[in-house]
Amino acid sequence: MLKRKIWLFILAFVLLALGITFWLMRRHDEVKYKEVLVLGHAGSGFLSPLNPFNPLPSNSMASLVKAMEENGADGVEVDVQMSQDGVLILYHDVSLESMTKAQGIIDNLPAAEVVGLKYKGGFFYDLFHEEEIITLEAMLQRFATYPELPYLHIDLRNHVASRHLYYAQTLLDMLRKYNYPHEKLVFISPNVQFLLAFREVEPAAQLMIDTAGDYEQALLEAKNNALQGICANGRDVSAAQVQRAKEQGLQVALFGGKSRSRIARIINMQPDAIQVDNVAAARQMLE
After folding, report:
1. How many domains does the chain have?
2. The GP-PDE domain covers which part of the protein (predicted)?
3. Dist. CA 77–CA 53, nearest whole Å
4. Which residue range(s) make up the domain with 61?
5. CA angle 233–235–236, rounded 5-degree value
C-alpha cells in the first residue's frame, strides 16, 4: 500500500510539473499585433535540438522549402556570399569550416569548390538531412514556380570592400533576370558603404541597416544616409525603440524567436517583419 501511495505521489508530482511547464511556455504567447510579415530566418532557422527540433542547415534548399511550402512563410531571409568567380552562393558563416569539411572563405574560392559541398552539422543532425550548399539562382528558380514571388530579405555578405559595387551589380542583375519586384526586396548590411553601392546600381533599392548590436548608432546612420529600414535582434531592442524607428519613417525587421513567448514578444513590439526561427509557431499565432 505504501509503495502504491509513493508511486501515485510521484506520478502526481510529474503531472503537476508538466502542467506548470506547459503553462509557463504558453502564458506569454498572446499576440495583439497582426500586421507583420513572417519571414523564415535563413529558411527554417538554425540547427536546433528542440523547440523546435530543426536538423536542416540554414540557407539549405530543404530549409527554404520547409519555411515557404510547409509552414506558410510570407518570404525568407537569406545570407548571400559571392565566390571568387562571381557566383552568388547561400551560406551564413564566414568560414566554410563551420558547416562543411572544406576550408577557407567563399570570397577566395571558385564556385566549383563550394557549390554542392555537403553540410555537416554533427552526427545527430546529419542523420536527418543530406543538404548541400546551393546558389542563389537555385533558390530563385524554385521561387519562380510559385504563383506569387515571396518577400526576400537579403543579408549581404562580402569580405572584400573593393568588390562592393561588383557584388551589387551581380546580385541585382540576377534578381532582374527573375523579374523580382523592388517592393518585395530588402538588402541588409551593417556596412553603410556596401548598402550605398546598391543605391548606385539601383536607386529604387530598399536598404536596411543591421544594427550589429548598436541600435542608436544604426538609427543615426539610417537618418544620415536616407536608408529605408533597420534590422535588429529581437532580444536586444524595446517596443519604444521600434516605435522611434517607425516615427523616423523606417521599416523595422526583427530577427530571432524560437519559443512561442519570445516570438510573441517580438511581434508585439510591432515590427514590419519578423525573421523568425520558428515559422510554424509564428504563423499559428497570427491566425
Report:
1. 2
2. 36-286
3. 20
4. 33-286
5. 70
Name beta bridge partners: 255: 233, 275
Pair (82, 9) in one structural domain: no
52 plus 74 within the same structural domain: yes
The CB density around residue 103, as the number of other CB atoms within 10 Å, is 9
Say if residue 147 is preceded by a cis peptide, omega within 30 of 0.
Answer: no
**How many beta carbons lie within 10 A of that of residue 197, not counting itself?**
25
pLDDT in tens, the chain (287 residues): 666 667 666 777 777 766 665 655 555 678 989 999 999 999 999 999 988 999 999 999 999 999 999 999 999 999 999 999 999 999 999 999 999 999 999 999 999 999 999 999 999 999 999 999 999 999 999 999 999 999 999 999 999 999 999 999 999 999 999 999 999 999 999 999 999 999 999 999 999 999 999 999 999 999 999 999 999 999 999 999 999 999 999 999 999 999 999 999 999 999 999 999 999 999 999 98
pTM over 0.85: yes
